């Protein structure tokens, strides 16, 4: 029955006899699936754009730095300045087991005009960071040439530096390899041992970080007379632990060490990337739910339309069904034919809509890349393969259900009653 040529010819003839009705029915299904694909693709493009700002960082991370105290405590007056130090780094690593990585940092921003870095007759004002090798576990940079800082650089206070890819053309000719060359920072020469790039060109701080120089923290502290001072901590939390709770635990520990009042919430500055990322992830979970909700019900509206059409079709063909039953056709054969007709009206336009929708998303992506449009909030619109196939399976099942209801009504009618019907 399924592979019978006569069955498919009859289905084609029935559809052809009601072209306008069939076309409108097919368009309803097509539009539902097409809109589902476009909505999901646009939502994914927005999500990719929003998430791209985090590609350069480990997301389960928070940052903490010192500010002026706002409450007196243990004889210390209000408005006191204090600083983190190297001992704080050690204590944090040894005391809080939930912490995965502690990366202390010192920095001098590029806006500080005395941060001149020179090579021969060229000079540039760059951001200078003092870091430990662990910073690569938080700032996800790519070493394009040479190497990054290592433990021996810290211990021996080596005068080595790693440059950002955007800072290289400011100091070196295009045909010169900067690895092994010496640049001058604050009248002290540092050897370039590595060049790094950032995976995310759309982050807000890309320009500053790409035009930066990394020095070993110990060398940075010595060169710029920081002593044991640490500017701030970047702290990555182990999976399964809440970054906000670990931040509160670290803040309490640092407050005790620096005689800060426990209720002085403004004595520390902090930024919780994990919390920001979670809120964004929750937002896009809601957007995806709304998108699928609207898309699926738009698609189901088309399926319901097909079910209504099939009810009309069955009523119009009641006498025909009665004749076939009287001539010995089995109820199963009649049901299969009606269900197959429904599947043709659902699966074919559904598949075409899926392919066309994916094609439209692909064209939009290619146009954005071709025109070199710099957009931070919309990148690579797409639909997951399994999601698309799942929608097609849902559509197919809906088609079977839409055809089964009127088909059951048709086969339950006695042949004699069917022959007496006159529609």
Q: In words, what does this structure look like?
A:
- With 423 residues, the protein is of the alpha+beta class.
- It has two domains: 5-54 and 278-420, no CATH class; 107-228, no CATH class.
- Helices cover 52% and strands 17% of the residues.
- It contains 13 helices and 14 strands.
- It has helices spanning 5-17, 19-52, 86-95, 151-155, 168-171, 206-210, 217-223, 243-257, 273-316, 318-326, 331-370, 385-412, 415-420; strands at 61-66, 84-85, 99-108, 116-119, 122-125, 127-131, 142-146, 160-164, 182-185, 188-197, 212-216, 229-230, 232-237, 268-272.
- The strands form two sheets. Strands 1, 3, 4, 5, 6, 7, 8, 9, 10, 11, 13 and 14 form a twelve-stranded mixed sheet that branches. A two-stranded antiparallel ribbon has the order 2-12.
- A hairpin with a 2-residue loop joins strand 4 (116-119) and strand 5.
- Helix 2 runs antiparallel to helix 9 (273-316), helix 2 (19-52) packs across helix 11 (331-370) and helix 9 packs parallel to helix 12.
- The longest helix has 44 residues, at 273-316.
- The chain is elongated and about 100 Å long.
Question: TL;DR of this structure?
Answer:
By secondary structure, the protein is an alpha+beta fold.
Radius of gyration: 34 Å
* Uncertain stretches: none
Structure class: alpha+beta
Helix share bin: 40-55%
List the topology elements.
Layout: H1 5-17, H2 19-52, E1 61-66, E2 84-85, H3 86-95, E3 99-108, E4 116-119, E5 122-125, E6 127-131, E7 142-146, H4 151-155, E8 160-164, H5 168-171, E9 182-185, E10 188-197, H6 206-210, E11 212-216, H7 217-223, E12 229-230, E13 232-237, H8 243-257, E14 268-272, H9 273-316, H10 318-326, H11 331-370, H12 385-412, H13 415-420
Parallel strand pairs: 6-11, 8-10
Antiparallel strand pairs: 1-13, 1-14, 2-12, 3-6, 3-13, 4-5, 4-9, 7-10, 8-11, 9-10
Helix pairs in contact: 2-9, 2-11, 9-11, 9-12, 11-12
